[in-house]
Design a protein that fits this description.
The complex is a heterodimer of chains A (92) and B (478).
Chain A (H helix, E strand, L loop, with lengths): L4 E5 L9 H12 L3 E3 L6 E7 L14 E8 L5 H15 L1
Helix pairs in contact in A: 1-2
Chain B lengths: L3 H9 L4 E4 L2 E2 L10 H12 L7 H4 E3 L6 E3 L8 H18 L6 H21 L3 H15 L3 E4 L22 E5 L3 E8 L10 E4 L14 E6 L5 E5 L27 E11 L3 E4 L5 H15 L3 H20 L5 H26 L2 E2 L5 E2 L2 H26 L2 H4 L3 H5 L1 H10 L8 H15 L1 H9 L4 H11 L2 H11 L5
Parallel strand pairs in B: 1-10, 5-8
Antiparallel strand pairs in B: 1-2, 3-4, 6-7, 7-11, 8-9, 9-12, 10-11, 13-14
The chains are: A alpha/beta (92), B alpha+beta (478).
Bound molecules: flavin-adenine dinucleotide.
Flavin-adenine dinucleotide binds next to strand 5 and helix 15 of chain B.
């Protein structure tokens, strides 16, 4: 079963890394297609990419079926992929 | 919300009277002197549709519950105030110059607060009028020029004492259907590519200045409105190529105008103050505090670009590892982030107003802009230091493009062998554009001259409290 991941970026005022590049890596490494978060289509998981540790996105505003995964540093890429996979397995 | 394309198209529907360098500009979208400013403002529309930036660019209208461009919103929390600063920083990083839309944003937020107060105390209905107008602005995603500054004539005199009464905008006629205003507004950022202007008083007023207590929304192409476009440092370079101008896409500052209001009629539903002189001072101060908050956002975004350009230039020059260069870059970052700190702080320490909206901490907002009047100059000075003298002596773009001289320029202006000379020249022109002339004067006078901030900082600081603290520790009884 394919998992749907809605991607939400922070506003990018002073990102400590390239958020788009990290989104591409997560998509490539996990084999999961990430699509822009759309409030009218509830996805399985919401992935929030914050450019720094402030995490200014109001995570609770973004609805999903299985949960929200948050990344604010490139070092977390593999952990984030693991979390998405766990959520994916949970809905199998 | 309007897309960038819809914004540009909407400008084509307007017909403002604009003079520039002895000619009339028929289309701000197509004229090379105004197009870069259109591009810069268009960024505020474009980014609202970009998933990478919409978290800052888009918010929810407290009037309609609909998604709106943040530039048309009234702040509903301190989080909104913080997001405003972050948004301004982020856009400044992309345009490298003023994107103009904050002035109207601040004028609308201060009008929201002031009209509420005036209504409460005078029984008028300006606030309801203004809310209707705001809804119209939000629905149509309009760009509003924030028009506070009058030409002011003799600075030692109040509006009513001036030899020429038109040196401040004033009401010349009250009619059944509206009012007629006369005067001018100076230094009007983004005016020619806005849809409307929101005029408000410049200074505190006495009873004798009653007619000068006027706030109103006026379309930029209303009958009687004449715009005279300002000349900026090196602006005609944009007519002759894309290197020497430095930032060919977005130009420099915000395309300011001297906007003359020749007996302009304003219907009552667009009038938000009409004679309530007692509230002018608070109105001006509220607007000014919101506007000063911005400078630790937009100017920090610009500083990010200047610092990046300077660091890259050190590499292009072959000296990125020199310890004094690194030290100066750190100083630049420190000043820039200090301005940002002040903006974030004045936002976090904002408060709810009786009108229900949120307002910045006045004292801290004034520290933002006072620091900016110094730090942007110092950041620019360090950029000049690191970039080298060639930013002042580079040949013309035309000579760089001339086969007879190009080879010499390529050969003798090369530094780091891995970097093409053209890259070095382009970066130098960007630094020149962002760190001198008009760009610096904006950091000094935009949102008020330094003395205006000093007056506010002193007034907002509780000096008696500070003296008491000192006396207590020194064991001084009285
Ligand atoms: C690039 C740029 C963009 C701008 N954009 C806008 C805009 O979009 N909308 C808008 O409304 N305004 C805008 N402004 C105007 C800005 O707010 C004013 O420039 C600022 O308030 C200072 O006014 P002034 O330029 O008339 O300077 P002046 O008032 O002439 O000040 C010059 C000096 O005289 C001093 N001074 C002035 N009056 C007195 C006095 N009574 N007593 C003692 N000293 C005095 C000042 O402190 C200062 O040192 C912009 C300005 C710039 C430079």
């Amino acid at each position: 079963m394919d998992i749907e991941v809605g991607l939400k970026y922070c506003g990018g005022c002073n990102p400590a890394y390239d958020r788009k590049e990290i989104a591409d890596i997560i998509g490539r490494q996990s084999g999961i297609k990430l699509k822009p978060y759309n409030e009218n289509e509830i996805s399985d998981v919401v992935l929030i990419i914050s450019g720094c540790s402030v995490d200014c996105v109001n995570a609770w505003e973004y609805k999903s079926r299985c949960g929200t995964v948050l990344i604010n540093s490139p070092e977390q890429v593999y952990e984030v992929i693991r979390q998405i996979r766990t959520l994916k397995n949970n809905i199998k | 919300m309007k897309t960038k394309e819809q914004y540009i198209e909407s400008l084509r529907q307007l017909h403002p009277v604009i003079y520039c360098n002895g000619e009339k500009i028929e289309s701000v979208v197509d004229h090379p002197m105004t197009r870069p400013h259109v591009n810069s403002a268009a960024m505020t529309y474009d980014l609202a549709f970009d998933p990478e930036y919409e978290d800052l660019m888009v918010t929810t209208s407290h009037l309609t519950g609909k998604k709106i461009n943040r530039f048309t919103s009234v702040h509903q929390s301190t989080d909104d105030l913080v997001k405003k600063v972050k948004m301004l920083r982020m856009i400044g990083q992309k345009t490298g110059t003023c994107f103009q839309r904050c002035v109207g944003f601040d004028a609308m937020n201060s009008t929201f607060i002031t009209t509420y107060k005036v209504d409460q105390e005078c029984g008028t209905d300006y606030h309801e009028r203004f809310k209707k107008y705001l809804e119209y602005v939000q629905e149509n995603d309009l760009m509003i020029a924030g028009s506070m500054t009058d030409p002011k004539g003799d600075r030692s005199k109040k509006p009513g004492q001036q030899e020429d009464p038109d040196l401040y905008v004033h009401i010349v006629e009250k009619r059944e259907d509206g009012i007629v205003v006369r005067g001018a507004k100076a230094h009007q950022t983004g005016m020619v590519n806005s849809h409307e202007m929101l005029i408000l008083p410049t200074t505190n007023l006495g009873e004798e200045d009653k007619d000068y207590a006027v706030a109103a929304a006026i379309p930029v192409d209303a009958p009687g409105v004449v715009h005279i476009f300002g000349r900026q440092t090196n602006d005609q370079r944009r007519l002759t190529g894309d290197i020497d101008t430095g930032n060919s896409e977005y130009a420099i500052v915000g395309g300011e105008t001297l906007t003359v209001l020749n007996d302009v009629f304003v219907p009552w539903d667009r009038v938000f103050m009409c004679g309530e002189y007692q509230y002018a001072q608070e109105y001006v101060e509220t607007f000014a505090a919101y506007h000063r908050q911005n400078y630790g956002g937009c100017k920090v975004g610009l500083a990010d670009v200047i610092i990046g350009a300077t660091a890259a230039m050190a590499e292009f020059n072959g000296v990125p590892k020199a310890s004094h260069i690194k030290d100066k870059l750190i100083d630049m970052i420190n000043m820039s982030e200090t301005m940002y700190n002040c903006s974030i702080a004045c936002s976090c320490e904002g408060c709810k107003t009786p009108a229900g909206s949120y307002y910045v901490n006045t004292l801290l907002a004034n520290t933002v802009k006072l620091n900016c009047t110094k730090y942007m100059y110092e950041i620019s000075r360090l950029a000049h230091d690191i970039a080298g003298g060639f930013i002042a002596t580079l040949p013309y773009e035309a000579d760089y493009k001339n086969p007879e001289t190009k080879e010499y320029i390529d050969k003798y202006l090369k530094a780091n062998p891995d970097v093409p000379t053209e890259h070095r020249i382009r970066l130098a022109r960007l630094i020149e554009n962002m760190t001198g002339g008009t760009a610096l004067a904006e950091s000094m006078h935009g949102a008020g001259s330094p003395q205006a901030m000093k007056v506010m900082i002193y007034r907002e600081s509780n000096m008696e409290h500070k003296k008491k603290l000192a006396k207590k520790l020194a064991k001084i009884d009285k």
